[in-house]
C-alpha cells in the first residue's frame, strides 16, 4: 500500500522550516541568523493559513528547534497474545493504537518500543523483529514535523493490563475485532495488517516506504 502524498503547502512549510533550522545551525553571523529565522516565520504563516494551528505557538516551536533538521522517530510495539493484538486507548482522543511514542535522544530504538509498551500497557516485552519502517505522517490529522515510524514485533514476557496517564484502556483484539476508531497517525490500518502478517509469518521480510 502506498502512502498518500501530503498537501503541497505542508511539504513546502516543512522544507522551509528545515532549511531555517539547518541554516541557523550553520549561520556565521547575526545577519544570516535573522534571515533564517524569517524563513521559520514564513513556514508558520503558511501552516496557519491552511490549518487550525496558530502562528505564534508555531513560531515559538520552530525557533526552539536546533541542529541539523532531520525527521523525528516514532516507535511502536506489536504484541500478541493468543493471536490477538495489544492496543491501548489514548486519553487525548479516545482512539486506539499500538503502544508507542517518540524515541528520546540516546534511546536504542527497540528498547524505546519495549519501554513504551511497559509504560502505556503494563506488559514487559522483548522486541524480536522489525515489522516495518514507515513514512509516519502522510495523511491526516497532519503533523507539523516530518517523522518516520518503526514498528517492532515483540514477545510478551510478563505483566498485566494496566492503563497509564496517557492511556485509558488496554486490551487484546482478534484480527476481525479491531476497533474502527484508530488514533490518527499513531496506528493506521496498514500497520495493523502488517503486524498480523508478521505474527503469522515470522520470516516475513520487513516492509518499508
How would you summarize this macromolecular structure in one to three sentences?
The chain has helices spanning 8-26, 30-50, 55-64, 109-121, 189-200; strands spanning 72-81, 84-90, 96-97, 100-102, 123-135, 147-159, 167-173, 207-208. It is α+β, with helices and mostly antiparallel strands.
Rg measurement, Å:
19 Å
The general outline is elongated
Under CATH, the homologous superfamily of the largest domain reads Nucleoside Triphosphate Pyrophosphohydrolase
Poorly predicted residue ranges: none
Helix content: 25-40%
Main sheet: strands, sense, barrel:
8 strands, mixed
Task: Give the DSSP E fraction (strand runs of 2 or more residues).
Answer: 25-35%
Q: Count of helical segments? A: 5
Could you please say which CATH topology of the largest domain applies here? Nucleoside Triphosphate Pyrophosphohydrolase
What's the arrangement of secondary structure elements?
Layout: H1 8-26, H2 30-50, H3 55-64, E1 72-81, E2 84-90, E3 96-97, E4 100-102, H4 109-121, E5 123-135, E6 147-159, E7 167-173, H5 189-200, E8 207-208
Parallel strand pairs: 1-6, 5-8
Antiparallel strand pairs: 1-2, 1-4, 2-3, 2-7, 5-6
Helix pairs in contact: 1-2, 2-3
Fold and architecture overview:
- There is one protein chain.
- The chain is an alpha+beta fold and 209 residues long.
- It folds into 2 domains: 8-64; 72-208, Nucleoside Triphosphate Pyrophosphohydrolase (Alpha-Beta Complex), CATH 3.90.79.
- The chain has helices spanning 8-26, 30-50, 55-64, 109-121, 189-200; strands at 72-81, 84-90, 96-97, 100-102, 123-135, 147-159, 167-173, 207-208.
- Strands 1, 2, 3, 4, 5, 6, 7 and 8 form an 8-stranded mixed sheet that branches.
